[in-house]
Design brief:
Layout: H1 5-8, H2 26-31, E1 35-36, E2 44-45, E3 50-54, E4 59-65, E5 78-80, E6 92-93, E7 97-103, E8 110-114, E9 117-126, E10 131-133, E11 136-139, E12 145-152, E13 179-186, E14 210-211, E15 215-222, E16 231-240, E17 250-255, E18 258-259, E19 268-270, E20 284-290, E21 293-295, E22 306-316, H3 331-341, E23 350-351, E24 355-358, H4 367-370, E25 384-385, E26 393-394
Antiparallel strand pairs: 1-2, 3-4, 4-7, 5-9, 6-7, 8-9, 9-12, 10-11, 11-21, 13-15, 13-26, 14-25, 15-20, 16-17, 16-22, 17-18, 19-20, 22-23, 22-24
């Protein structure tokens, strides 16, 4: 992502990597696409971007900032196309930068001649962590790819920039029904606890874009119900890459109302209490997930797809023996005990529908080999993902089981109003 001048040059003194010799002038410094600060001991330094330079003695100089993408790159995972040897690795690193310097004839560089100039081309990319699950795989890391070249015509110096391209998501979908359940996306809460949802994305705000690992604040609540004695509970919440909640791949967010344990960025349940300012706080459920994208199981590459969130919801009426609150630590043990005891609790589960999230555009699987024949592009990938708020009216009848102290219980069928 190309940064503004101010953002690009906001580098701490400890992280600054010197660009040029100590006596370099401002004009020469900026001509090399570097930042200049007369008051700093390192007055010419590389900015928070990707800088490519071609030296007169036939060397590539590529300086990569970890802040060139969002979320930041893992500099340890960045390598060249032919970077198998130690000579093709970084010649210097700091907490925020990695510098590569190698001859234009080494590390997998390709040469071609055009219009009286010799062009040298190479490719740099990064690896990323893939998190497997039982029904799909995801990643929250930036996938990074940079195609760069040096064109030698006399003594010309040609710097390149890294750019991230985004894609627009499809619009949200709604479905009517007798029981009205709304699923919304909220903006970042004002309180540190995250309980206060002050603002929601409206229809005019869509599409909403989210960067990988950005928090996505979700709220599910019942509409047009005034019974203070009922509690909205969430069963499973999961994500798919298509609007169908049954499609594959899938990634679990909540399981039986509790965060999915095999996610390294577990979903955060946000309590909704009296301090929330809501008239019926028990009609609401809130949680936060970290934005991600699905990964193709065969190629292990991020998919150029949207992400849809689905939740199953139920209405519960608290009793002396059931507070309608999941016990996440011992939920497995409690579920086994309930099965053995032959519990007669009857719950109807209704899907709250789909929320559309969109990831930023990724290179196609065949893009790498086409880079050598197409007009050079720079693919610094900072994967943007999109979160969408939608009002979903679900057509369903919701059965509520009322537990009593008597040995025999009678289930009541509750229809959504």
């Amino acid at each position: 992502m190309e940064k503004s001048g101010n953002q690009k040059c906001l580098v701490s003194d400890n992280d600054k990597v010197v660009c040029g010799d100590p006596t370099i002038t401002r004009a020469d410094c900026e001509a090399g696409n570097c930042c200049f600060d007369q008051t700093s001991q390192r007055r010419c330094y590389y900015g928070n971007d990707v800088t490519v330079q071609c030296t007169r003695d036939g060397q590539f100089v590529v300086v990569v900032s970890r802040n060139a993408t969002s979320p930041p790159l893992s500099l340890d995972s960045v390598s060249l196309l032919g970077g198998g040897s130690a000579a093709c690795g970084p010649v210097g690193t700091t907490a925020g930068f990695a510098m590569f310097k190698f001859p234009v004839s080494a590390c997998g560089t390709r040469m071609r001649v055009e219009a009286g100039a010799v062009v040298y081309e190479n490719l740099m990319n990064s690896s990323f962590e893939v998190r497997p699950g039982p029904d799909g795989s995801i990643t929250r890391d930036s996938a990074y790819r940079l195609f760069f070249q040096c064109k030698y015509a006399d003594d010309e110096l040609v710097p390149l920039q890294a750019v991230v391209y985004t894609v627009s998501p499809p619009p949200p979908a709604v479905s009517p029904g007798p029981l009205r359940v709304e699923l919304q996306l909220a903006r970042a809460p004002s309180s540190s606890s995250g309980e206060q949802y002050d603002s929601y994305y409206s229809e005019g705000d869509y599409p909403v874009t989210k960067v990988l690992q950005d928090p996505v604040y979700v709220e599910v609540h019942i509409l047009q119900r005034t019974d203070p004695n009922i509690v909205l509970t969430l069963g499973d919440c999961w994500a798919t890459s298509t609007p169908s909640p049954l499609s594959q791949p899938q990634w679990s967010l909540l399981v039986a109302g509790c965060p999915y344990r095999d996610d390294n960025y577990q979903t955060t349940l946000i309590p909704v209490g009296g301090s929330s300012g809501l008239l019926y706080p028990t009609h609401y459920q809130r949680f936060m997930v970290r934005m991600f994208t699905f990964v193709d199981p065969a190629s292990q590459l991020p998919l150029k797809e949207t992400v849809y969130i689905h939740c199953s919801a139920a209405v519960c009426q608290p009793t002396a023996t059931d507070r309608c609150v999941p016990t996440c630590i011992s939920r497995r043990r409690r579920a086994v005990a309930a099965a053995r005891g032959g519990s007669s609790k009857d719950t109807a589960v209704v899907s709250s529908g789909e929320v559309i999230l969109t990831a930023s555009e990724l290179p196609a699987q065949g893009e790498a080999h086409r880079l050598w024949s197409e007009v050079p592009q720079v693919f610094s990938y900072g994967l943007l993902a999109v979160a969408a708020s939608t009002v979903l009216v679900v057509s369903a009848l919701l059965l509520v089981a009322v537990w009593r102290f008597r040995p025999c219980t009678q289930n009541k069928a509750v229809t959504g109003a």
